[in-house]
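Complex record, two chains
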Amino acid sequence: MDHAPRPLASTRSPSPPPEAPAAGAATPADPGRRDFLGAAFTIAGGAVVLLAGLDAAASGETHVPPPGGDAYNWEEHRWAYVIDTSKCIGCGSCVRGCKAENDVPDGFVRTWVERYIVGPGGSYVDSPKGGLDGFPPVPTAFTPTKSFFVPKMCNHCKETPCVQVCPVGASYRTKDGVVLVDGKSCIGCGYCVQACPYGSRFLNPATHTAEKCTWCYHRITKGLKPACVEVCPTGTRAFGDMMREDDPVRQTIDHERVSILQAHLLTEPQCFYLHLDMEVR
Amino acid sequence: MEHARHVFRIALVLLVVITAIFLGRGFLVPRSYGTFGPYRADNVAEQMKIRPPAHAGAASCAPCHKAKSEAHDAGGHKAVSCEVCHAPLLRHVTNGTVSGKMPVDRSFTLCARCHRRIQGRPDKFPQVILEQHVTSKLEGAVCLDCHDPHSPKP
C-alpha cells in the first residue's frame, strides 16, 4: 500500500514532461501537482475573501450605541487632568479620599504624593505610604534650597504602553480618554504593571488582577469630579473636559506652560503639570 | 481515486481544526469583545456603576448642618471640603437617610497633616513648628483648645 505511490513518482521523475502535454495527459483520477495546488489556492483564497466579506458586512451593518446609554455619551467628552505642584501642601487628603472612594487595598495606592527636597549638596525624595498619613519632618545631610510635593497618579496616556502589552485585552482606553482595566478579563500576568513607566499599576492581592486609577469613572460619568479633586483643599488638582472650550482645565492646558512626566517616552500623558521641577521624573 | 484519499484526509483534518477554532473562539471570547476595540465593551458600562460615589461634596452637608456649614463657608477653611477632615458622605448617609455616625477626629495629628511645618510645603501656607507653637503637652485635642476647626481665624 505505502509502496504504491513510489513507482509512480519514480516513473514520472525521469521524464520531465513539458507543461502542456502533462496537463493534457492528466486524467481526472491523476491530476498534476500544479493543477492540484492551483485549485487548492483558488479554493482557500475564495474562502478567505468570503469570510472577510462576511466579517466586514457584519461589522458595517450594526450601529452600536455608546455604553453609557442616554445618560452619558462618551463621545462628547475627553477628560484631562492638571496638577499645580506649587499649591500642594502634602496633606495626603487625595490619597485618603481615593482609598475611601475606591476601596483600595491596604499597602497600595492609586494616587500618591512624593516629596522632593533639593539642594546643591544633594537631593532627597520620599513618599511614606504614598503620603497616606501626611509627611514627617526629615533631617537631611545637605542644606536644602528648595522642596516641594508632587502628586502622582495614572497619566491616562494616549499612547499607552500598558494597554499595548496586555495579552488578553483587559486593559483599554475609552473614547472619553480614560485607561481602564477589565477585572473579569484580567489574568493577573502583571505585564502592564511592568510596562507602565509611571508605576501607576499594581496587582490587587485579593483579586489577583491589575488595578489602577480610573479617574473615578463611576463618578465622572455622573457629572462628579474624581474623589482626589473633590477633597483637595488647595486646588492643586483639577479635572476637566477638553471638549468644552470654556473648561478651566482646557484653558490652563491651552494657555499656560504645562509639562508632562517622562515626555521622552512619547506616551502622551493626559495629566498635565504646572511648575514641575526638573528633578521630577 | 486512491490518491484522492490523501486529499480527503487532509481536508477532514483541516475541517476539524477550523471547527474547533471557531467553537473555541465562541466559548472563550466574550460576546461584546471588539464592539469598540480589542476589549470587552460591556466593561465600560460595568465601570460606570462599579460602586456608588462615596464623596458627595461640601454642598451636600448644608441641608442638615446649616449653622456649621455657614460658619465654615465664611471662615479660613472654606476651601476645605467637609469630607477632607470627616469622611465620605456615604459613611454617614445612604439613600437620603442617616446610616452611620460620621467620624470626628479631634486629634492634633489631623491639624498637623496640613499645618505642621515640614520641608516641602509652600512658604506662604500657614504652618507652625508644633513643638514651639504648643507649650502644653502635645496630645489629644490640644489644637481645639484655642482654634475652631470649622472657622479658624486667618
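Note: Chain A is about 30% helix and 15% strand.
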